[in-house]
Design brief:
Structural class: alpha/beta
Oligomer: single chain
Radius of gyration: 24 Å
Number of helices: 22
Shape: globular
Strand content: 5-15%
Number of strands: 11
Length: 560
């Protein structure tokens, strides 16, 4: 790790919004010389998608979809690891080992990460690095993921074996008007002896002081478990799952329950829920609290995307305080952990409502609130309004911590807000996607001029974490590659500190075309999808023939 000789610092952050980043002249590319590193015709994320910049690429599914193939073409899991299949001839998967090996794609590399680390690979012959299973095995013990349920939850939900007694109880309270006020006892530990014998029903409410801790924002798609592990390596304190849809959890959808998985390294961890009906969110919160090991459950009232907003969820809730009250009170009644809320300034840029909600959140039972300093209408454009966050913080009672978020991309940004006492903590989202080592910089209060080789090592570590999480068979490697590329759609926006005339880099500064200090640094800065795929091949081996990738998120945050 190297610490840069710091360039001049920018003392007027607002003047940099929507302008080019101040890169040293010797690193700037001549105008018009914006070919990619391989000399092939450029394919930017925008060009691949063919639409305006901003928001999400909503029609990318067909391009990115992984072809799973037929079960009969896949080798039986039991046979792949040398075990006898209990289903015999009725097994829907192939038992023709020789035939499978004859048509299997070549190995992607000589070393299997799982075998090298843990001494075995649970994918056996299906592993895309199966040749590496002959090497000296590793001896580390594979950590057991927390909140990994298999199909147990789905079966119990289908058989209606799960009770939602607390949700039913609070629904009756609403009918009689006997709903409790939590303003004075938000952090109490009432009912601690209830279900004391169930470790997953343990009461965690009020036992964590969130103030002053670094917080990685819940991030859809890119905030997956391997990425959160990377951020934990760099020192983040609080992590949260990707947004989980309450109704999908209650339907037992496996893809939704996969989002609540927790790595043992995640010391303070929560699950974020989204929805628009109090009884549905209440049952989902009661279920997660009862079955999962979580420190808090978060209510999403900040998501600006059309799919959530048009269904009345996410930031759309901000237009309906009565509905918010019912949802928050319901969640507080049914969970044994802390309840947190994430929200925006309001729906419209001209009508801030957060300051009216903050004191009510505490009265309704929230332990922590996180305010993104933009409206739904702004999405991620313009500057986050930290002055308004400070005004809302002044309205927050002592029983509820208020975090702020928006445009934090450096330790200077973080400590400027904390030292001004405009919030009790700072949530970091896009800043962590662009430079996850920001958490280390925050703790050390210094700039890390991270080298290109160190950044590539970070991506290798992500790929290894991804293989542990998604697997080393063809399906698993496809997932690792896809999520690595999704992350690279943010990572390429980082400008090395040593190339800047003025520090720190600001979120809304456009990076002009520039050379890096090495070929690798130049490659990592490319905004071309072809180059992102090349980076993935440096780590995971060749991409499949005809491979196409369109990122989920388009960048609209450079608009001033």
């Amino acid at each position: 790790m190297t610490v840069s000789t710091l360039p001049e610092k920018d003392t007027n952050a607002s003047s940099t919004l929507g302008c080019d980043a101040p890169i040293k002249k010797e690193y700037l590319l001549p105008v018009g010389k914006e070919t990619n590193s391989s000399g092939t015709p450029e394919t930017t994320a925008a060009a691949a998608q063919g639409k305006r910049e901003g928001g999400q690429n909503q029609n990318r599914g067909a391009a990115n979809r992984v072809r799973k193939g037929k079960k009969a073409d896949k080798l039986c899991v039991r046979l792949s690891v040398g075990e006898e299949c209990p289903h015999g001839d009725t097994c829907p998967f192939s038992h023709d080992v020789d035939g499978y090996l004859a048509q299997k794609e070549p190995d992607l590399g000589p070393v299997c990460h799982l075998h090298a680390l843990f001494g075995y690979c649970r994918y056996g012959l299906r592993c895309r690095y199966a040749g590496g299973h002959k090497a000296q095995p590793g001896t580390e013990v594979e950590p057991q993921l927390i909140n990994a349920f298999g199909n147990d939850i789905q079966i119990r939900l289908r058989k209606k074996q799960i009770s939602f007694a607390r949700t039913a109880e609070i629904e009756e309270m609403f009918k009689t008007g006997a709903v409790p006020d939590y303003s004075e006892k938000n952090n109490s530990e009432e009912d601690e002896d209830e279900d004391a014998g169930d470790k997953r029903r343990r009461l965690t409410r009020g036992r964590i002081d969130y103030r002053g801790k670094t917080y990685l924002a819940p991030l859809t798609t890119v905030g997956n478990l391997p990425f959160r592990r990377i951020c934990k390596d760099y020192g983040v304190d609080i992590t949260c799952s990707e947004m989980a849809i309450a109704s999908s959890l209650l339907q037992g959808q496996a893809s939704e329950w996969a989002l609540v998985k927790r790595h043992p390294s995640e010391t303070i961890f929560g699950v974020q829920l989204a929805g628009n009906k109090a009884d549905v969110i209440g049952r989902a919160a009661e279920l997660v609290s009862a079955e999962c090991e979580v420190d808090f459950i978060d209510l999403n009232m900040g998501c600006p995307i059309d799919m959530a907003f048009n269904n009345g969820g996410g930031s759309a809730l901000l237009a309906n305080p009565k509905k918010i009250e019912r949802i928050v009170r319901t969640m507080r009644h049914v969970v044994d952990c802390d309840l947190t809320v994430k929200f925006r300034t309001g729906v419209k840029s001209t009508e801030n409502v957060a300051h009216t909600l903050v004191p009510e959140f505490a009265r309704w039972g929230a332990s922590v609130g996180t305010l993104h300093g933009r409206s739904r209408q702004q999405r991620y454009t313009k500057a986050a309004d930290w002055e308004y966050i400070g005004q809302c913080h002044a309205e927050a009672p002592q029983s509820m911590a208020l975090f702020g978020g928006g445009d934090v991309m450096s330790w200077e940004d973080y400590w400027a807000h904390m030292d001004r006492a405009v919030c009790d903590g700072v949530m970091v989202g896009r800043g962590a996607l662009i430079k996850p080592w920001i958490f280390q910089e925050i703790k050390e209060r210094r700039v890390w001029d991270i080298s290109a080789s160190e950044r590539l090592d970070m991506l290798r570590k992500f790929a290894n974490y991804g293989m542990e999480h998604w697997g080393t068979d063809s399906q698993g490697i496809s997932n690792v590659r896809r999520y690595l590329l999704e992350w690279q759609s943010f990572l390429h926006r980082y400008i090395p500190a040593g190339l800047l005339e003025v520090l720190p880099q600001k979120m809304n500064q456009r990076p002009p075309a520039y050379y890096g200090r090495s070929d690798l640094e130049t490659l990592l800065a490319s905004d071309k999808v072809n180059d992102w795929i090349k980076i993935s091949e440096m780590i995971l081996g060749p991409a499949p023939d005809g491979f196409v990738f369109v990122p989920k998120h388009k960048s609209n945050s450079y608009q001033g």
